[in-house]
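Anyone else keep sequences and structure tokens together like this?

Example one:
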Amino acid sequence: MLKNMEIWVEIRRRVLTGEISKRQACVEYEIHWQTLKKILAHEEPPGFQGKAARAKPELGPFLPIIHQILVPDQVAGFANSGWGLHP
């Protein structure tokens, strides 16, 4: 999906004014036709649409225990030191 607003607007303008065809836009900008459909349907790129957090049926019951282990390590400075051997 295109995130550059200038390119988004340029593609919309050129296709909607008839300067280039939809097929030519796909070839010229190297985009999929479904992406072009989204560009033509929206004036600006749609924002990130986050989804609900996935369920964690296997790990879920152990998350509090893992959190109890990790938080003291982060406070002690072991977070980014490889295996935590060097504070």
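And example two:
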Amino acid sequence: MQDVIFFLSKHILLISIWIFCFIAAVFFITRTLLSKSKMINNFQAIKLINQDKAIVVDTRSLESFKEGHILNSINVPLKNIFLGKIKEIEIYKMFPIILVLSDTYKVNACIKKFFEYGFNRVYILKNGLYYWKTDNLPLIVNDK
């Protein structure tokens, strides 16, 4: 027991760092488990689309949307979400929503808005369309 006390007294900084890391890990794990939304990868998104009839909401600009988007996705630019202009997707409140975001720093604010609008099952496509493209998954291109 004296050896433990001696070790602790000589290595205060090391012990402090370990305690900080432990608290941070517990915080992030708890936050992830209690979060209402989840970050999903491409294959989880495909499974949600095929099995649960998830609706893909692409929050990128119309120009980016026309350059390539997921089949049957609905374009609702991020600014419209924050302004409350979501008439196109209000009828889908009972379905899971998969968000395609280009501005990852606005994820939390966007999710909060969707929960305020009454959507209960909101998912975020991890890394937006970047990994969708790198996995060679199909994109629809509109030239109009």
